[in-house]
Amino acid sequence: MQVSDSSSRILAGLLEARTGQQLTMNRRWRIETALASLLRERGIPTLDELITILVMGKEPGLSNQVVEALLNNETYFFRDRTPFDLLSRHALPVLAKKREATKRIRIWSAGCSTGQEAYSLAMLFAENQADWQGWTIDILGTDVSNAVIDRARAGSYTQFEVQRGLAIGQTIKYFEEAGDGWRAVEQLRRPVRFQVHNVLEQPPHPGAFDIVLCRNVLLYLNADKRELAFERLASSLAEDGWLMLGAGETVIGQTTRLAADKNARGLYRLTSEEERRDRRTGERRAARG
Ligand SMILES: C[S@@+](CC[C@H](N)C(=O)[O-])C[C@H]1O[C@@H](n2cnc3c(N)ncnc32)[C@H](O)[C@@H]1O
Hints:
The chain is an alpha/beta fold. The chain has twelve helices and ten strands. The structure holds S-adenosylmethionine. S-adenosylmethionine binds next to loops.
């Protein structure tokens, strides 16, 4: 199937307008593969025909399906492993002390895709169940795509999906066989909720989250949108909360609201007004030379 320049421009524009995600020229090859099954299901012969239907606005749900098909939803349980070790060895023990009075911990997995990240977090608590007796643990998973949130809520995964990241012992302990695949058990599902949300919009619970994970979501946003996303994520954090990004992602040079936590490599904390003022003064001095 041939993708004309104008078709790929229109589709990339639609994706960026709805989600902030840029489909740069060198990634436009994805369009054809990403939309092939949607075209087949809908009986639409070519991408140009799809554009015509979209432009005529005759099928209102179609543009959502197109955007969702173009999003990259790659994820797996305990992705990159080290961040989860950092959470269980450092962040959660620190929070266990700090939140002793309220016995409540709130975590947000922003851009959670099909939910593996949120259920991996739930497993960290389940692994040390005795330590968290009497605590309220809230894990919120959000994503801009309805389709992946439906799948996350179902908590059902194929054999291939559980094998990616889970040991056999974990699969048997936290999942039950369901048809050809596996469904997360009640203990894992209880602390986890999912909702559709765009990370560029107001956060679901401003100032409430102790930990926010936003991993592998902001890579393809332009600088302005990324700054806006960091602004939103920062405003979702409790005063002493942490943000965690994906491997190779950073806040450095992207926002003044967050800075690396010197005590925990891989976690970002909110900056104070004073730090932000000092940084702005430094930047002005550097600009003057
Ligand atoms: C590559 S997946 C990463 C999933 C998971 N965080 C991980 O690291 O395994 C990126 C997810 O971000 C979602 N996403 C993209 N743009 C978004 C936006 N503006 N708001 C919320 N979610 C977004 C996509 O739908 C996709 O499910």
